[in-house]
Each structure stands twice: as structure tokens, then as C-alpha cells.
């Protein structure tokens, strides 16, 4: 008898009896799985959705519920706030955000369809207040809809695409919009007759010749054989909670300590690769440390342990954080003047490392050699007074002289501060969410989306909030549709 | 009939007739394949070696023929030059060189066995003059044996392991010792009765149940089915010549333009993954720009396009180059005084970007903002006079003030200067060169070594010359031995 394994599809010829039969089997009940289920059901398929937890959520449920949307002249919220957003600019930004890992076909597909996707989300019942909240926010603390959630207005992105805010957040008071977002999607899926089986862990795919035709699922301590007449959708999330996989594919994440995920153990990636799929860009990860809270800290200047700047600090907080984690020495400093300093949030575990009435005093207190940090700040301030940053092209008003002491240096320590992270690498899929084999051909019957794939948020240094949920929800839909079509 | 594919082993049950039968089939005739063949033949196996080119060589034949060897108190050459080299220090360096990608078991295995390996190489006929050539050399320009070939004496490595030179070069006048090294290994393999079949390209592995039992090889326009009773060894090199694979797994290499390789198209990685293997650390690559030629340039200081230092320049030239390629802006500058400047080698394509009687003048000529490069150099020089480098811990004598003009800034441009590179990621193998499946278990009958695996040179930032050939030759031997044992 064949072994039941994540790493090798089970032969259909050895299935003696099917415990369940459906058109489309979906594995994972975060936003990806929910959107796949809705779309497959709308296409007329019988859909079964298997989730290893006792309810929906996944990593999507832990998120801010923010979806990156733009193009086609802008959403209602963008236009009401005075932002036109051309499809060309939107796609150009998506591609720049993908950096060296970009999947151009996905950027183009989503770029053209994002406004329709927004309409679709609303049709599922996702509420949007429709208003714009200016400023720099990780998530809105009220129930606003639209925020700046990336590096759109910062160099080099602002030179590549006309900036617009594109972070569209479910109407929800305060942080944590991901949970209500999944709730809405779950309700929609249920209303369409999707059969949801919780406490059901996928153990193996089932293959008949070259086609994936089902899945083995562990339910109530029993292996259940599920026939999927039209297709299987992997929607299982990334591998941030799997230390062995991180060691093999993404070891830089061991510099930091706060994985964000639910049961994101990479099982969908294993299932897909075992079926002949291709895991790509596995070293990529998102990270952020909440250094822009309070918002006044966004006016600070970052230096590394050599007293050098390394980024234009008006970029998205996650891009700045990701570049910080590249720096040698295990920590970076956020430099602030008294006008901008506020005690950081406790949960950030960001401590004061030095203070002084001059930058020379701060430099000495940090134990940095003379003329390092102090010269960095003298050069920065001289240019900031002229409204320019010739080193990194930071823009006003975030670019402002920090020359009136007293001053403070906050330490963002990679090991002790709160650097949350999740993985971005995964299965290579087409722009229609087909899992591709190593030669680039779709594997019949197998679809995937979200963080078990490499998608829109392909490159850690280019991440923007909402890119992952855009990817999950939009390509989740493509996966459901593809599977329903068989 | 099953398809013949790199991506999926061909079923033995469909082989109607075997064209060749052997105990061990080896694919690839660089140093790895040659060493595997010798060891398998010595273990009593009938060995056939298939090479797609018309002769031996592979990327090994393009190399300097330098092998990283130490430990156990030191080789004859190390001891004659006054360097003791404990196994503990040697292993500690190997592990540090592997960085976040380290395979500790391989470091320990090789670390204990390297001196025996040196003896074995000599027994095959590899000549070593036995002398030590001090200084900083990419390869000896004479026929010397022992050179510093890594970052042993530089921080942080010198704080982790007692430094010793460990680059052991075949006795050969001038650069290019790789070709004669492979010649010696080829002669040894032939003398042991290894059957060598050139112009033979591997198309697919052959599997019987869970075991690899042979290989399909294209010879004279025909598919030939080769039965390997005991094992198959993959020794096909990396994927630097395969742009599609680089795009998927190692896109940062598109910042630079000079791949070093022969037909390194990743076919062995594809064969291994298709058989259930696991490709790891695929984003890692070695690069170097020959900036230490002439040797006086080793005394220079590197700054990035922001005028900042980024590395202790006394590290191995490849480590400095790899860190250079991480810098924003597409180029870095090597700063020299007139006492150390010599016209760079033509092939390096390193041009003069600016000159001046003071660092302020150089700064202005490069178009850098005032007080950036000039302050960097003022701080550097002030500390160099005290014999210290508090920023990066560069050591004397390479650490020396550059304060007597005129000065020159050489531009190392990622797109136009000569940055050679090759890939380091590949199959995950055990310390005995067994190809491991995704759950970590050996795939019966399948072995691999060299650059189609992730081995001793696992991390681009820690590469040292000789690590790759150490890995190829030593783990090539393990692969041959393992295959011969069946």
C-alpha cells in the first residue's frame, strides 16, 4: 500500500472507497480559501472546504484586513479623496514592489482587475466606509477605509509611478480588521452552500495519472479520502511556523523572533512540490517593527551600528524594517529630537539607548566613534534645511531638520525588539492560480493562492500593507474559478 | 509510454532493454565526477561516467585548482610555513563561512577528514610544491602551494577561529590550476578502469519503486538506457548558465553580468528534485570583482554611492565584492592614494571615476554631497593612525592611513565591471552525499556532490577560495563511495 505523505501524491488506484465526493476541494480557511470557495460555488461547483483548525481565520484572521487596490482611475474612496490612480501607475507600482522577484503577469492581471475585485468584495458584504485617513498609519485606529500603506510617495517608487494611497481597510473600529473580513467572507461562502469541514488536516493529495483528483484528509482520527472531480485548491498559507523549513529556505529570519502566523507550517508548499510543483523565492520574508508609532516617530532618522543612514525613512515601515534587518551588528537606532519623541509602545520593545543635548553627546553615549553619527546628522540637517536628501531622496515633510536638542536614540534590536515576520516564498503559479510544474506547465487539477505561493508580495524589501491580502483574495478567486472549471 | 524528463524519473518497468549496465553511473566530469569515479572504482565497482561535453573539465576546469584544506595540526605546507591549524579552528571557520546557510554536519565531517583528503589527492597524483606564498592573491602567479584564500585573518572570522592560510593550489605555473587538476584526476580515474563516455547528456533518472536504478542518456542522437546496479551520482554543477532558473531562484544575480560556468544549467538539480530531492539556499551566489589586482589595491577603502564604508576591506576579495553588490545605487568606489594606485587590469573593467588632491576634491568630482566621503575618510584615517578601525575592525597592515594625496576613486560598476559569479544553492545532501528527500530521508540509489548541491560554500557572503573544490572533491568521493556500496 502506498504511503500517505505530504511529499508524494497518493495513487488514486489505491483508493478503495471515497469517503466524500465533491467538485472542488479547498484546503485552508483563511481569506484565500474563503474567496476560492465563493468563486467556485458561484461557478456552479459543489465545494468542500477543509480547515485544520476549528474555525476560519488562518493568518488572514490575524491581519489588519487591508487590501491593496487601485488602478482604472481609482476606487470610490480614492476618487473622493482626490486621487486619480491610473492602471498604468498601479501596475508599475506593483512591479516595482516585486523587485527582482516580480511576477509580471500577476501584476498585470491584478492591476487590470483590482477595481472589479473591489466591487466583488463589496458584493460579498465587505463594508467600506469610503473615507480617506491622511498620515502614516500601520492600520487605522478608527473605522476609516483608505490609508497610505506602502512606499508610493517615497523614492524610488514615486519616480516609477504616480503616488496614490491604496490600502483599503474593511470598516471596523480600530486594529484587527482581518478577523471581521474573514467573517464576512465566511458568511458569503456559507450562504452559497459551501460545505465547511473544520478540524480536518490535509495529509496528501491524490493523483490519477498526471491529474490531481482529490485529497486525503485526517478527520476525527481517521484518514478520509476526498474525491475532487474538478480540482483541488491549496490555500494553506506560508511556512513561518515551521522552523525546519525556515532553516532550509529562509535562514535570515532567525535574526528576528516574532513570527506572525497561525498554523502556517508550509504543508501546502510541500503538497504542491510533491505533486511536481516548483517552490520559488523561498528566502523572501516580510518583517516590520512598529517604529512609526507614535506617528511622530516617522520623522526620525535611522542609523546602523556604524552611525550610517541606510534608507529614506519616508518609505513604508516594513521596507525600512526589512532594510534594518540587513544591517550588520544586530541593531539599528532611530534618532529623534525632543519635538518628535514620545515613549514607544510597550509591545514594540523599543528602548532608549542614548540621549544628549547634541548629536555628539548621543554618539558618545552610544559608544560610536567621534564624527560618525554626529556627521551623519550634520549632513542630514544641512540638506534637510534645503528641503532635500541627496543621499536617499527622502521627501518633506517627513524630511525635517532634527537640530534642536535634546535628542534621543531608540534602539531597535533584532533579537529583543518586536520584529514580526512572515514568509513570502512558495509555489510558482500562473496568473490564473494554476500550480506550475518545474518546466512551467500547469499541473492538471491543482490550484493554489495566498502565502503558499509566491505572488504579488514577492519581495520583502518591496512589501506594502495589503499586498498579501490582495494576493490572497484575488488569486484565491482565480484558484476557485479555475478549479470549478476543471 | 512514460515521458523522458529531467523532472520525473522514468519507470524501470518501461525500460524494454538496457543499453549499458554498470554498478555506478556518474553524471558530469568535473572534479566532482572524477573523484566520485575514482572512489567508486577503488571500492570495487564497475563505473561508467557520462559527460555531455567532449571531454572532462566542467566549471572545475575553469577554476584556479585551489582546495581549502586544514585542521589536524596543519598540512605539510601549513606546518612548514609555521601555521598550526587545529581541527577545532578549521571547523569553526568552515561553520562561520557557511553563515545562516551552514550545514554543520558537512563542516564537521570535512573538518575532521581534510588532511586525509589532502593525502588522497596527492595519492591520485596531484602535485604540491609545498611552499607558502604570503600576501593577498586571487591565485598564485607562480607555482606556489599555499595562500591565504579566505577571510581567516579578518573580523569577525579571526575572532571565531585562529587564522591560518588554507588555500592549497596544485603545483602549476600561474593562474588556471583547475584544468591540470582535472587532468590529474581524469588520469587517475582512467587508470582505475572507469569507463568514460563523452558527448553523453543525461535526460532522466530511472526509478524502480523507491530506488533510483539508472539513467537515460542521450548519445549519438539516441536515448540509451543505463542500468546502475548500485547507484547514480549527480555531479553536474550549478545553474549559473540557466537564466530561467536564475530568474526563479536567484534573481539578484541579474545585477551583475559575468557568469562563470561551463554548461552549468542546473540539470542535476532538476533531476534530483524530480526524484523527490530538496533544493535549498537557491538564492545564494558567489561573486567577485578582481579589485585586489594589483595587490596594492588591497590597501584601499570601499565606499558605496552614499560615501559610506560597508565592510572591513581586509576580508577575502569575494566577500567584499558580495557585500558591494548588496549596496544601493549600482556601484561602489575603491579609494586609493597615489602610493597604492596602479592602473587596474584591463579585464576587470574598473575605471577611474574621480581624482583629487584632497578627499574633498574626490568627493566633489564624484558628485557626492559635501562631508560624506570626505568625513568617512577623515574618520578612517584618524583611526588608522591609531591602528584601529572601530567601525568594521579592519586590521593592520591593510589598515593604513590614506591621507597623502593625490587620491583616486575607482568605480566598480555592477553592470559594466567584471563581476564573475556562480550559484551555490542546490540539492540537500547528507554528509555522506546521499540526496535527501523533502522529509530528510536518503533517496535510495541517488547521490550528489559539488555545485548541484548546497555544500561547504553555502553562503555567498562567507565564500573563500577553495571551498567549492574542497566540497566537490571530498563530497564527490563520498558520493562515489556511497554509490559503490549501494
TrEMBL record, chains A, B:
Keywords: FAD, Flavoprotein, Oxidoreductase. It comes from the Bacteria. Residues 23-457 form the FAD-dependent oxidoreductase 2 FAD-binding domain. Pfam families: FAD_binding_2. The keyword DNA-binding does not apply. GO terms for biological process: steroid metabolic process. GO terms for molecular function: oxidoreductase activity. Its cofactor is FAD. InterPro entries: FAD-dep_OxRdtase_2_FAD-bd, FAD-oxidoreductase_2, FAD/NAD-bd_sf, Succ_DH/fumarate_Rdtase_cat_sf. This is FAD-dependent oxidoreductase. The lineage of its organism: Bacteria, Pseudomonadati, Pseudomonadota, Alphaproteobacteria, Sphingomonadales.
